[in-house]
Amino acid sequence: MSGPQISPATRSKVARSVLTKNLGLRPGETVIVEAWTHTLPWAVAFAREARRIGAYPIVPYEDEESYWDAVDEGEFNVLGVKARHEWAALARTNVYVHFWGPGDRARLDSLPDAQREKLFAFNKDWYATARKAGLRGARMELGRPFPTLARSYGVDLAKWTGQLVRATLVDPAQFERRAAPIVRALTRGRKVRIRDPNGTDLTLALARRRVNVAAGRPRVEDRARPFDFLTGLPSGAIRVSLDESVADGTFVGNRSCYYEAMRATGPVFRFRSGRLVKAEFERGQERFDRGYRTGGKGRDRPGFLSIGLNPELKDTPQVEDLERGAVMVSVGGNGFQGGKNRSSFFGWAINAGATVEVDGRPVPL
Prior knowledge:
Strands 7, 8, 9, 11, 14, 15, 16, 17, 18, 19 and 20 form an eleven-stranded antiparallel β-sheet that branches. Helices cover 32% and strands 27% of the residues. It is built from twelve helices and 20 strands.
């Protein structure tokens, strides 16, 4: 299925930028570029640029129509099982470029949970093999725009894709420079206050935990963590887990919350004495409530704070927290950001334009 028309020159420019600035591809290294029907032109561009650098690419390809035919036929014992020859190649790979697939994420989301689990049963072993190989890689959001998903989100497919193209090209060094003073404030500070004339006035606390900067290039230390050797692109965010016992006030979101195949809008979180006491949405309330009901202990506690850095994004599906000046507050589990909350629930709201103070001093967003 064809998508927005993007010139070969633009695809080559993006591929070159990702391979050199984000992944540091060197001559003689091995590269795997994962391709689906809708991302094959991107994979071809990445393979060509890898060869120009002097690296050795291969492109495993999955046909969208054939994939769904296999799903309809119930062939989960083939689709969800790791293939020995693929794993052998993975174990000898230096750089991996992942484009999201299948393209029809709305259809994927409509499958019963048990079927989706079977389709991705290989996932844990994939990450274990990739981590052992010491590879570095990228998850490309450019594989996510797809006609059915754009309709589910209510967004323009071409505009969505264009934002991702421009945002992926932002130099990671730019994020690192802009992040530096914010990281210092969040590392040294104790109290965070977020305010906006729209009704937002929320006080949170920091617990002297590591501040993580998503700048778009994997670091050596990232390879020790389960998933961080694959960087998300586009990138650009600062994240820190919060003191789970402190949260008072109101946080009014002005950006959408994009789930796998739908979006929620108009979130308002109200906290008192370290707990979420009310969460309201103009649209999508049921999606938040469904996860909250089964979230277990800690589902109502503050999770982590995120500040976006990317100037090329605005209310962009699945990367809405990366928009420059976007402040995200989550509730529920935050263990993946270095916190103590192991709740299975993860909810969030985003305000783009709020002011942030750390210990009474404004933070430059």
